[in-house]
Design brief:
The protein has about 100 residues and is mainly beta. It is built from no helices and seven strands. The strands form two sheets. The protein has a four-stranded antiparallel sheet with strand order 4-5-6-7, with no helix packed on it. Strands 1-2-3 form a three-stranded antiparallel sheet, with no helix packed on it.
Length: about 100
């Protein structure tokens, strides 16, 4: 992991350079053997529901897709630690996924 010398944001690898997504600062990546480049970690946030017994608790929640009134739910920290968690719902009928933020 590499951090920007200008603003401190995490930098991304791009064609032999480290590029800051916040301020645009660039610097050479150096020896490629020293770094491991990974893809976005978004896939780790996906929870597949297996039609029925998903292992997740259920609650009363109105599905915006099919108007079913029951959904599986889980909470996940997706912002900084001082922000509240985000509640995610999965419809028990159509498996539509949506989220609800605390504000």
């Amino acid at each position: 992991m590499e951090f920007c010398d200008e603003c401190g944001s995490m930098m991304k690898a791009d064609d032999g350079l480290w590029v800051c997504g916040s301020c645009g600062y660039e610097k050479p990546r150096g020896d490629a053997a020293e770094y491991v480049i990974t893809e976005d970690q978004e896939a780790s946030e996906i929870i597949e529901s297996g039609g029925g017994s998903s292992g997740l608790p259920t609650t009363t929640a109105q599905c915006p897709n099919c108007d079913n009134d029951e959904a599986y739910w889980y909470m996940q920290q997706i912002r900084s630690a001082d922000e509240s968690e985000t509640r995610f719902f999965v419809c028990t009928e159509c498996e539509h996924k949506w989220r609800e933020d605390d504000h």
